[in-house]
């Protein structure tokens, strides 16, 4: 018979069928408020209910029917024991697939009419952290400077008005710029300030769950999870859907179902939607149909704000000149910025004495010596390559097609690919080209490196220069 994890699916399926049979009203008030807890075998299932009062009523009205439904789906007699669980109740409170109307929900009759999630609307039983969300990815921990204040404001408005302010929302920007942090901050806020059910999933896991559901004939419970028992869907890294046709189809339907019932959907993508390949237009137009929030590499001032904040929360006492050193050198993205800084804090902890500027420079140099160096910017690479070939960096960015410019341009793209965290799309954008051109350039350089010792020498010189410049910067 079924595996342990399948009992939850069985339960979901039973609930979905009862929903159709009993109608939305009974579902909203009763069935939607129970939750699967555990099953010690196919014959015994533990199910949560929100209160003792609910338990008595539910037992009288629905227990027999629920057991019957489970038994017929399982092909064996299933007995359900009910257990009061206030926390699960909070999570299950809006399982109906609709925003609760105050009139239908007696316990919420006095809730404010404002669309803003308001603290008084919060569930009575405190909610636990959602396991799929990182608890440190909150608005409190998201540092706001001049260059990301629009993104932060937009996220804040979405979190306070799920499903009504902007829908869908697309957050896009390169690796490590804070897309997941901002998306999960929205999720954490909604989870702790409303009864809405938040589902966070990466595109990769969406695909995996979808394939698993297909293989084990559990499509119903997959559909239920995303279409009916989700009020807020957070789907991370949709670029992963490139070329995954079957999953795209399912996503399209999921998206439509959620949109129809005015549920909040947030996507992230590490590149421009127009740069996505092998995703049909009907889907890309969906992704872009709402609000677009763009995250860019942060300016020096905001980088310093972030470092100061970490310095304070970690009580690390790193001196201002070292904060400045890191802030100046690590421009690529926030992830690299944080890892460089945490590296220095760890060094200080290990040595047991305050870190000096010389220590920090040495540590940073070690970091830059590593094969993929996060401190390198494309500008520095451009400058190094231009100097090596006695050109200007404008030449490298220009559309000139003469050989004396094309080869250095290819080398610059190759080095950017090799030693920065930028994606080929982002590198392409720096040169006014698309990512295919960057990939072509990299291949070309790669082949020549293997066969032409002189060429190898030149590329190595460029690399060395870039390292020197990045340390001086
Ligand atoms: P992405 O999803 O865009 O690749 P993440 O959201 O994972 O990037 O962010 C990378 C790291 O940078 C995380 O540790 C995140 O907390 C941190 N981070 C990004 N932006 C900020 C910010 N504005 N303030 C504080 N931390 C940030
Ligand atoms: Mg991410």
Key features?
473 residues; alpha/beta; GMP Synthetase, Chain A, domain 3; Rossmann fold; 5-stranded parallel β-sheet; 3-stranded mixed β-sheet; 8 strands; binds adenosine-5'-diphosphate; binds magnesium ion
Amount of beta strand: 5-15%
* Rg calc: 27 Å
CATH homologous group name of the largest domain: P-loop containing nucleotide triphosphate hydrolases
In DSSP terms (H or I, runs of 4 or more residues), the helix count works out at 20
CATH topology of the largest domain, by name, is: Rossmann fold
Mean pLDDT: 85
Contiguous runs where pLDDT drops below 50 for at least 5 residues: 93-115, 119-123, 369-374
Characterization of the model:
The structure is a single chain. With 473 residues, this protein is of the alpha/beta class. The protein has 4 domains: 4-95, GMP Synthetase, Chain A, domain 3, CATH 3.30.300; 149-294, Rossmann fold, CATH 3.40.50.300; 300-369, Helicase, Ruva Protein, domain 3; 378-472, DnaA protein, C-terminal DNA-binding domain (Chromosomal Replication Initiator Protein Dnaa, Chain: A), CATH 1.10.1750.10. 55% of the residues lie in helices and 9% in strands. The protein contains 20 helices and 8 strands. The strands form 2 sheets. The protein has a 5-stranded parallel β-sheet with strand order 5-6-7-4-8, with helices on both faces. A 3-stranded mixed β-sheet has the order 1-2-3. It is elongated and about 85 Å long. It starts with 5 loop residues before the first helix and ends with a helix. Residues 93-115, 119-123 and 369-374 have low confidence and may be disordered. Bound molecules: adenosine-5'-diphosphate and magnesium ion. Magnesium ion (MG) binds at residues 179-180, 236.
């Amino acid at each position: 018979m079924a595996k342990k994890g399948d009992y939850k699916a069985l339960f979901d399926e039973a609930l979905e069928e009862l929903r159709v049979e009993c109608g939305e009203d009974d579902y909203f008030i009763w069935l939607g408020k129970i939750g699967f807890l555990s099953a010690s075998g196919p014959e015994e299932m533990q199910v949560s209910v929100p209160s003792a009062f609910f338990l008595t009523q539910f037992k009288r009205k629905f227990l027999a029917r629920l057991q019957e439904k489970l038994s017929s789906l399982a092909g064996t007699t299933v007995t359900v024991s009910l257990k009061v669980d206030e926390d699960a109740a909070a999570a299950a409170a809006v399982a109906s697939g609709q925003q609760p109307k105050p009139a239908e929900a007696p316990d919420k009759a006095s809730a404010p009419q404002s669309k803003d999630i308001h603290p008084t609307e919060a569930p009575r039983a405190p909610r636990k952290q959602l396991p799929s969300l990182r608890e440190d990815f909150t608005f409190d921990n998201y540092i706001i400077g001049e260059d990301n204040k629009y993104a932060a404001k937009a996220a804040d408005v979405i979190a306070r008005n799920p499903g009504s302010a902007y829908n869908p929302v697309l957050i896009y920007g390169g690796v490590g710029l804070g897309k997941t942090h901002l998306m999960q901050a929205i999720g954490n806020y909604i989870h702790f300030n409303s009864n809405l059910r938040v589902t966070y999933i990466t595109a990769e896991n969406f695909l995996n769950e979808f394939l698993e559901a297909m293989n084990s004939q559990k499509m119903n419970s997959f559909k239920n999870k995303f279409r009916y028992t989700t009020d807020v869907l957070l789907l991370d890294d949709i670029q992963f859907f490139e070329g995954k046709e079957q999953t795209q189809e399912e996503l399209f339907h999921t998206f439509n179902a959620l949109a129809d019932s005015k549920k909040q959907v947030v996507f992230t993508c590490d590149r421009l939607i127009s740069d996505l390949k092998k995703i049909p237009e009907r889907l890309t137009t969906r992704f872009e149909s709402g609000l677009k929030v763009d995250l860019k590499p942060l300016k020096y001032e905001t980088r310093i704000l972030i470092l100061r904040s970490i310095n304070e929360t970690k009580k690390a006492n790193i001196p201002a000149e070292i904060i400045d050193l890191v802030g100046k050198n690590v421009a690529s993205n926030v992830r690299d910025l944080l890892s460089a800084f945490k590296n220095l804090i760890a060094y200080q902890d290990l040595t047991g004495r305050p870190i000096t500027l010389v220590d920090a420079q040495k540590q940073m140099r070690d970091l830059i010596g590593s094969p993929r160096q996060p401190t390198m910017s494309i500008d520095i690479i451009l400058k190094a390559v231009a100097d090596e070939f006695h050109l200007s960096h404008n030449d490298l960015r220009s559309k000139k097609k003469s050989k004396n410019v094309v080869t250095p341009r290819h080398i610059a793209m190759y080095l950017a690919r090799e030693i920065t965290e930028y994606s080929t799309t982002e590198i392409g954008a720096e040169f006014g080209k698309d990512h295919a051109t960057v990939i072509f350039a990299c291949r070309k350089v790669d082949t020549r490196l293997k066969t032409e010792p002189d060429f190898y020498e030149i590329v190595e010189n460029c690399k060395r220069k870039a390292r020197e410049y990045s340390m001086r910067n």
